[in-house]
Amino acid sequence: MQHGVGGGGGAAGWGQPGPQPSVPPQPPMAPAQGWPGSPPPQSPPQQPPHPPHQPLHQHHQHHQHHQSQPVPAVPEATGHIPLPPAVPGTGGAVLAVLLIGPAGAGKTTVARHWASTRPVPTAHVSLDDVREWVCSGFADPQAGWNEHSEAQYRLARRTCGFAARNYLANGISCILDDAVFPDRPVVGLGGWKRHVGPNLLPVVLLPGLEIVLERNAERSGNRRLSDEEVARIHGRMAGWYGSGLPIIDNTHLDVEGTARALDEALARALSAPGGWTP
């Protein structure tokens, strides 16, 4: 027996078709999990964590703030320091001075006095003092000039140059003293300019031989040289005449007078056209 599509069956309790009570429409039910023929449930995609919401204008200002901040340049602490332009006199100028002279010329005494009487901060660095920092193993040139004494002199000059650059970088003038020979420009004046900088101002202190011998005789320890060695060094220093460097003959000058002569020589060098270029 065939039934029409949609016809009622003979199930128990099933009556004949008739008027049906009105039932409010129900929303469709989601298919139950595991219902045959339904697609498997999908979990929502995972989003990466992000900071709390920030208003657009604030985010834009924050971005501009980071872009507008310049990166500060890191100065080179141990490079050559550009000194201020030359000005008349030396009262307030930041200077790098090298006082040259033979043993017994009074370099250390004059340099210390000149540095201590300036109206602006000024340091004095003595090559002999730095050289004698070496205690055990000190290579005394009086015992004979050899590779060890030569190496310790080179080390002391580099150390003095490093100290001078640090003083200059902090606005403190510096005066150094050394027996620099004119016939050794590479390790002499040229070497000092490499260590300290091209604006180094060299001045030669050269009294007469009699004064140098007399002052050397008053020395003691490893700083006292033989008369023959003093005369030999003094003769080599005479080569600075004609070099263009300022030369001070302090044969008849005391310490104060020599310091004044040094300041005058430096003032003339600074006021020269184009500065001092020996």
From TrEMBL:
InterPro entries: P-loop_NTPase. Residues 1-85 are annotated as: Disordered. Pfam families: AAA_33 (PF13671). Residues 1-16 have a biased composition (Gly residues). Residues 18-30, 37-54 have a biased composition (Pro residues). Coiled coil: none annotated. Residues 56-66 have a biased composition (Basic residues). It comes from the Bacteria. This is Uncharacterized protein. SUPFAM superfamilies: P-loop containing nucleoside triphosphate hydrolases.
